[in-house]
């Protein structure tokens, strides 16, 4: 297929034929089931490590060498590690379970964001011509994207919502003809 086969946008069309071609293909985006499985399995591994570290604390404190400053500091380090890993376990589990339900649907009418859970669904539909801006912000190690509608509605997604949020933002930008603005 050559470039000549695509119809050129006429005066006042507002969008190019490539944008129309992108919009014509319905597409559902969701997270990789494999990576979600790795995240949930990681939470189980972290729980195992947390229990092992807690057992190490008891082993150090009940050792035959008695309680000394060195043993106390060693036990404290293992205890802090057990606490941190214990806190990370439910966080990873919740993140993996939440990522199972997130999806974005592209069709010829617009984009439908489903960024809620089964208990608290959060759907937002934005027609292609109603998207006002696509914004990007990096906070620490998290990439955050905002798709703003002309009516004030906003869809937010980040690297905690989707494993590749930049790719999703680029796909929306390709279908709207907008650029991604840094906040």
Q: Determine the oligomeric state from the structure.
A: single chain
Largest sheet entry:
4 strands, antiparallel
Looking across the biggest beta sheet, what order are the strands in?
1-2-3-4
Helix content: 40-55%
**Class by SSE composition:** alpha+beta
Percent of residues in beta strands: 15-25%
Helices, by number, come to 4
- Taken in chain order, the helices and strands follow as HEHHEEEEEEHE
Mean pLDDT: 86
Instruction: Using the CA coordinates, give the radius of gyration.
Output: 24 Å
Q: Which regions have little confidence, pLDDT < 50, spanning 5+ residues?
A: 1-13
Distance between the termini: 39 Å
How many distinct beta strands?
8
Global shape: elongated
Characterise this structure:
The protein is of the alpha+beta class and 183 residues long. Helix content is 45%, strand content 23%. The strands form two sheets. It has a four-stranded antiparallel β-sheet with strand order 1-2-3-4. A hairpin with a 4-residue loop joins strand 6 and strand 7 (154-158). Helix 2 packs antiparallel against helix 3. The model is unreliable at 1-13 (pLDDT under 50).
In short:
By secondary structure, this protein is α+β, with helices and mostly antiparallel strands. 45% of the residues lie in helices and 23% in strands. The protein contains four helices and eight strands.
């Amino acid at each position: 297929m050559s470039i000549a086969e695509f119809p050129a946008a006429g005066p006042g069309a507002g969008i190019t034929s490539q944008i129309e071609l992108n919009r014509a293909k319905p597409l559902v985006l969701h997270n990789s089931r494999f990576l979600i499985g790795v995240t949930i399995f990681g939470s189980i591994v972290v729980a195992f490590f947390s229990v092992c570290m807690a057992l190490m604390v008891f082993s150090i404190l009940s050792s035959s060498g008695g309680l000394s400053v060195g043993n106390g500091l060693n036990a404290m380090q293992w205890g802090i590690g057990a606490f941190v890993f214990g806190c990370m376990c439910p966080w990873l589990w919740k993140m993996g379970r939440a990522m199972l339900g997130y999806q974005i649907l592209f069709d010829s009418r617009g984009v439908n964001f489903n960024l809620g859970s089964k208990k608290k669904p959060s759907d937002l539909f934005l027609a292609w011509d109603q998207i006002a801006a696509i914004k990007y912000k990096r906070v620490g190690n998290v990439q955050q994207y905002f798709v703003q509608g002309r009516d004030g509605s906003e869809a937010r997604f980040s690297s905690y919502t989707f494993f590749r949020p930049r790719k999703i933002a680029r796909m929306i930008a390709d279908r709207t003809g907008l650029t991604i603005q840094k906040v």
